[in-house]
Amino acid sequence: MRVKIFESIINHKINTITAEELVKYANQFNISVSRGQAIKITEYLRGKNINIFDNTQRAQLVKQIAKAAGPETAREVNNLLIQFTKQ
Fold first, then answer.
1. What is the pTM for the complete model shown?
2. How many other CB atoms are found less than 10 A from the CB of residue 48?
3. Residue 55 banded pLDDT, cuts 50, 70, 90
4. What is the torsional sign of CA 50, 18, 76, 26?
5. What is the chain's mean pLDDT, rounded?
6. Which InterPro entries match (predicted)?
């Protein structure tokens, strides 16, 4: 039960994050994301209800991040998301 709550909180944050928050978190984890890239990524996320704990959905998200911010940023974000999803 506790794990599902944890997953829900993380997924909710991913799905409702603002561009400003995304840039702030990226800076905290030394991931290079510009404001313009953050806007594109958050526009993609808006209304999608993505579950980052589902490998297929996370892979789709990483592909969209690669389109918006480049493959290196997408790789870094994927590594970060994998850290969040390890149990």
1. 0.81
2. 13
3. very high
4. negative
5. 89
6. DUF2624
